[in-house]
Write a structure and sequence with these properties.
By secondary structure, this protein is mainly alpha-helical. It is built from 20 helices and no strands.
Amino acid sequence: MNERETWATRAGFILAAVGSAVGLGNIWQFPFKTAQFGGASFLIVYVIAALGIGLPAILAEFVIGRRSNLNTISAFEKLGHKNWRFVGALGLFTGFWILSYYSVVGGWVLRYIGGSLTGAYFGAPAKYFGQISAGMDALALHAVFMALVVVIVAAGIEDGIEKATKLMVPSIIVILGALAIFAFTLPGASEGYAYFLSPDFDALFANLGDIVPFAVGQAFFSLSLGMGAMITYASYIDGDQSLFGDGITIVFLNSFVGILAGLVVLPLLFAQGIDPNTSGAGAVFISVAGAFANIPGGQAIGLIFFLVVLIAALSSAISLLEVVVSWAIDNYDVTRPQMAILLGGVIFLLGVPSALDTAWLGWFDTLAYKFFLPVGVLGILIFVAWVYGAPALDEVMKGSGLGEGVGLTWLWLARTLVIVAVVATLVLGFQTLFLGESPAIIPPI
């Protein structure tokens, strides 16, 4: 077994965890999910869910990781609950599953960077996406993106992931901030701000049943919960730094980036008269690309935008590969570069169907977000809150400087409200997966 690495600095851990959370979901999914579910109404519920539900859940994953200093499977055995290793195994499998198609979308982003340089997608954005989203070109760029991820993870925790995310996360914030300032100058952008920031409380309460499950789901998904990433990253913490402080910082920065992306995307679309109420990866690429085609300096702005999306995609992808690499090097006498290359290759092969046909990508995505992730989060919460209990409370209080009442509040929130929220999300997902004329569980064969 190899000597276990640690983060060089506390900031390195925080930025790596933020990088894991800040990905395509924040820059693509969050603005369009907000538009789909009522603009500011969704935003309010999301912020409440991220703090009231996402924060307790991320602390639960931190407890498992730091208490054990092991990967997402072996952690449960070290904590004295060998029979719960299946929860960690599900998280590892989920990260493996998600990265296989996430890398394909990362390849699309690489293509759009090139398309911004040449203006290739300006004339017919929908046709351009159709041409590049599936086929041998998509497969080749899927390979390029995975190779970039492998190189970073192979370099290690301190020299690879920590150094990369220390550059990536501040870059994302700075570039999105600059783009938000640019979007503010566009005629008609004020309608986007009004839609995004001015809530309609009548609409909120009238549609609460639809908004809440999706806002809770977005909070979990955008925080990288249920895929082993936060357990794995917390396992590299060396010391008793405040998990409460780290968790709040990560949730705040993650939400801030999502909101900042909304301040770029929604004003941009409203300024061009484009309906933001769309869904799906293809619709997102087509809508934003179409907006760039009609604004001054669209090629340069498009290039900058897709560069920040690439950075966000890489920062999340490296955390997903690290989950499986961490497990391998904790349990076998192999080097990090060897396992990064081997497992990266296997993940690439799993992503081949998604690269050749977007219907497969949609199927992989649906199973991940509506089944694997919620089940994984639920298992972690039940274990930490109800099975592990008192040691979990002891771990979360270390270095916090807070009274025991704060810790007990976290524990009971995790035992009650957070579990109920995850179950509600699961029920909603099961309806899509197993009911109706065309259940989503059936693959597109």
